[in-house]
Design goal:
Elements lengths: L4 H28 L19 E5 L3 E6 L4 E7 L4 H4 L7 E6 L4 E3 L7 H6 L5 E4 L7 H8 L4 E2 L14 E3 L10 E3 L8 H5 L2 H5 L5 H23 L8 E8 L2 E4 L3 H9 L3 E2 L8 E3 L3 H11 L4 E4 L11 H8 L8 H4 L3 E3 L3 E3 L3 E2 L4 H4 L1 H12 L11 E2 L7 E2 L22
Parallel strand pairs: 3-4, 5-6, 5-8, 6-7, 8-9, 10-12, 10-14, 14-15, 16-19
Antiparallel strand pairs: 1-2, 2-3, 10-11, 11-13, 15-18, 16-17
Helix pairs in contact: 7-13
């Protein structure tokens, strides 16, 4: 039976009332027990992210996660509330912070956020070694991180928190849903570093990293907007699956193209799927491709190293490609340049936390200079190969935060 608007409203009212009580308690504790009060020296304010909100009390913080509808009560470990309060309901979970350790469901999780915060060494449990982080792999190889069977939630009880991106899996009391992939725009996704920062009292660091990334991204977007061309280059994100090509309409990808100074496939094209076995579909697909300047081929493959321009042409099923400007100009790209064990793409990790590098890649793809080496995209029209990520590539001090890569921008 589906919930009525009235019942949903009541649920949220109850949650808000509970939080009001907690805020009152935190303030009273601060007034009556100064020795146990934890002063909040730094806070994070959400600028653009839509799917989580932060609230601060004297001895606690609250994260409201819009994705799963839960509120996370984070209690400072040297407050009296830390020993008295424990929540694990369908709507509220409590955690004692700063976390002493944590685990992550690394089947699909951007651990680069932990690296930027300097939290990687505290990640003591993972569910898969298919991660696109050299230093996370190094910690695992050194035995400092334990492999945990993700099918049994009880095994994660040994950790202060277990971070997941899959909200559909069975969850225990210490599970926290980290969902940057649900945001519509690149900078919104990057701002989720503030979500993790509050679990470690690292708001200042999270604010600094996000501010640096944001400013560099916006600077590059401004430079790209000032590039003078009579017409903006047309960019198509497309994917082939089971004999059918489709044009991608994910908002964050379209936003990247706009910010890089390009133009997305015309929204007036009302047909976005094309069956290569259908002559009419194939003809229409080829006609559209003849109008495109840059193609980003997102087709999934079990072996990225073997996917090349010939694979693309075979999937497109074309004999005469002379009208394809993106091939003439050698601008056929994939975002699988950095990959670990043929399964973990850094596109779903480092590219999420540092969108300024993705934007720089796309600017180079749209307005090629030949002076910039892309990070996440490889040009298969030029035969560019993948880079295999390995633990031996971790050449930094893991005990200190990784600095974001900031590109020259004027």
């Amino acid at each position: 039976m589906s919930s009525s608007p009235y019942s949903c409203c009541c649920c949220w009212v109850k949650i808000l009332l509970s939080l009001v009580v907690l805020v009152t308690w935190g303030c009273l504790e601060g007034a009556n027990g100064a020795s146990s009060t934890v002063k909040v020296s730094n806070i994070s304010k959400i600028e653009g992210a839509m799917n989580f909100h932060l609230y601060y009390g004297q001895t606690f913080k609250v994260i409201k996660n819009v994705v799963d509808g839960k509120s996370y009560l984070l209690i400072q470990n040297n407050s009296r509330m830390a020993t008295r309060t424990k929540y694990c309901t369908s709507r509220i979970k409590s955690f004692v912070i700063p976390l002493s350790n944590f685990s992550a469901d690394t089947y699909f999780f951007p651990v680069s956020f932990f690296e930027l915060l300097g939290m990687l060494e505290s990640m003591k449990g993972i569910t898969s070694d298919s991660v696109a982080s050299e230093c996370a792999l190094k910690l695992y190889e050194r035995g400092e991180t334990e492999m945990i069977n993700r099918s049994d939630p009880r095994l994660f009880a040994q950790f202060s928190a277990h971070f997941v991106s899959d909200t559909d899996q069975t969850q225990a009391c210490n599970f926290a849903n980290f969902a940057p992939f649900g945001e519509d725009y690149p900078l919104q996704r990057a701002e989720w570093i503030k979500f993790l920062g509050v679990f470690a009292n690292l708001e200042s660091r999270a604010n600094q990293v996000y501010g640096t990334v944001r400013d560099n991204y916006l600077c590059q977007a401004k430079v790209a907007a000032n590039k003078t061309r009579t017409f903006k280059p047309i960019v198509a994100w497309m994917e082939y699956y089971n004999g059918i090509w489709s044009f991608t309409k994910e908002t964050y990808k379209l936003k990247y193209v706009e910010d890089a100074g390009g133009e997305n496939i015309d929204n007036s094209i009302n047909k976005i799927t094309y069956n290569v076995s259908n002559a009419d579909d194939l003809d229409e697909l080829h006609a559209i491709l003849c109008t495109v300047d840059v193609v980003i081929d997102e087709t999934y493959t079990l072996d990225p190293a073997e996917y090349n321009q010939s694979t693309f042409l075979q999937n497109v099923n074309v004999e005469d490609n002379s009208c394809f400007a993106f091939l003439t100009n050698q601008s056929l790209w994939r975002y699988d340049k950095r990959v670990q064990n043929s399964t973990a793409l850094d596109w779903f990790d480092g590219a999420v936390s540092q969108p300024q590098l993705v934007l720089a890649d796309l600017i180079e793809a749209i307005f090629p200079t030949g002076n910039y080496t892309t990070k996440y995209f490889r040009n298969i029209a030029k035969g560019e190969r993948i880079i295999s990520i390995g633990a031996n590539m971790c050449d930094r001090d893991i005990s200190i935060p990784m600095e974001p890569t900031i590109l020259a921008c004027q």
